[in-house]
Write a structure and sequence with these properties.
Ribosomal Protein S5, domain 2
């Protein structure tokens, strides 16, 4: 197992009032993501627990792209990964952000 912690500042706050959302199922062979409101309104903290070591730079790039293109301020995101591809990670994160925003 590898743990990767990522912090981003200066973000637009995610709209909506939903307190949390879960997307994906780790037992499905890809990943599970929990999004929670909390922390600094213009920051996003991400913790990734992955069974596949050595992919930190790819994880950081995927998260950096998501927070650059979407309002993610005020969120704590926990990811339990079981070998998901970057496109699946992006899809699940977008689903979670949409649920949190109430779309």
């Amino acid at each position: 197992m590898e743990t990767i912690d990522i912090h981003h500042d200066g973000l637009a706050a995610l709209p909506g009032t939903r307190a949390w959302a879960i997307v994906g199922v780790v037992a499905s062979g890809n990943l599970e993501i929990l999004l929670e409101r909390g922390g600094e309104a213009q920051a996003c903290d991400v913790r990734i627990e992955t069974s596949v070591a050595g992919f930190g730079p790819i994880w950081k790039a995927v998260i950096r792209d998501i927070v650059a293109r979407n309002a993610a301020g005020g969120l704590r995101i926990s990811i339990n990964d079981s070998g998901a591809r970057p496109d699946t990670v992006t899809l699940r994160l977008l689903q979670g952000l949409s649920m949190m925003a109430g779309a």
